[in-house]
Amino acid sequence: MADFKALCHYKVYNDFYTPKWVWSKIKHIVPKEFIIWEACMLNAENSKSIEIWEELGYNVVGNTKWDILTCEIPKCDIIITNIPFETDIKKKVLKRLIEIGKPFIIIINICNVFANYFQEIMDLDNIQIIVPKGKLHFQKNGEKEKKNTSFYSCFIAYKMNLSNSQLWEI
């Protein structure tokens, strides 16, 4: 049996980026007329998320100088982002997302859904979990994507009112 206490000894990296095929999994639930804010771009010089969503036909705002925790909220209809993995930062970002109150879709390690902090922070009446088929993989610092992610991820949707069939990526 795994000893999860040992997990705190592993280094956590926040600089993994989301490839196009991962974002493509949810494009069918994001209305084309929505303006997307890619909100977790601070110092993410190698991220291609904005370009990817633009290639998918969306208007996107975001900036590698904006800190979601302190910046003014740009004109947008939805926030779509891959939030940082590090727990203290993640908690702050989750609180800020709920405070902002706009619909959002974030990628998160599915184990986080079971954490006390997640359930304490989230507005559980407006949260839905989108379960992708298989593991999602990410790219580190622009390197070639490796399909060796050690955890399963899900998408958390807020204020999206998705149907049950939309919660399972087909």
Question: Could you characterize what this model shows?
Answer:
This protein has 170 residues and is an alpha/beta fold. It has helices spanning 20-24, 49-55, 87-100, 116-121; strands spanning 16-17, 35-37, 59-61, 78-82, 104-109, 127-130, 139-140, 153-158. It has a six-stranded mixed β-sheet with strand order 3-2-4-5-8-6, covered by helices on one side. A two-stranded antiparallel sheet has the order 1-7. It contains four helices and eight strands; from the N terminus they run E-H-E-H-E-E-H-E-H-E-E-E.
> Helix- and strand-based class?
alpha/beta
Order of helix and strand elements from N to C terminus: EHEHEEHEHEEE
Low-confidence stretches: 1-13
What share of residues is helical? 10-25%
* Count of individual helical segments: 4
Tell me the distance between the termini: 32 Å
Helices and strands in order, then pairings?
Layout: E1 16-17, H1 20-24, E2 35-37, H2 49-55, E3 59-61, E4 78-82, H3 87-100, E5 104-109, H4 116-121, E6 127-130, E7 139-140, E8 153-158
